[in-house]
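Checklist before submission:
- one chain only
- standard amino acids only
- sequence pasted in full

Submission:
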Amino acid sequence: MLLTAALMAVAFAVAGCSKQPVNTEPIRKYKIDGEIVRLDPDTQTAVIRHKDIEGWMKAMTMDYPFRSKEDYAKLHPGDHITGTVFVQGDDFWVGEIQKSP
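Returned file contents:
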């Protein structure tokens, strides 16, 4: 019985150590203006050809993940969009999407 309790305590300790740390860095927001080039529904990402993202990145074409299924569902290749890039540490994603004419 004591051995079982000790093994369970070790298992819980190991499981607790394997959790991803919670990112406590603040989320920064940047405006994005670009065109949807390609979509990958398996990873819920979009390749976006965007203008300079002031304060964060020069104009380029790259993959962006979307956390919101609703925002992602609005997208089609060729769409011109504006929205927000959320940056937290090394993590980033796009949201608050609006289609532009």
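Reviewer check: The CA atoms of residues 36 and 48 lie 5 Å apart.
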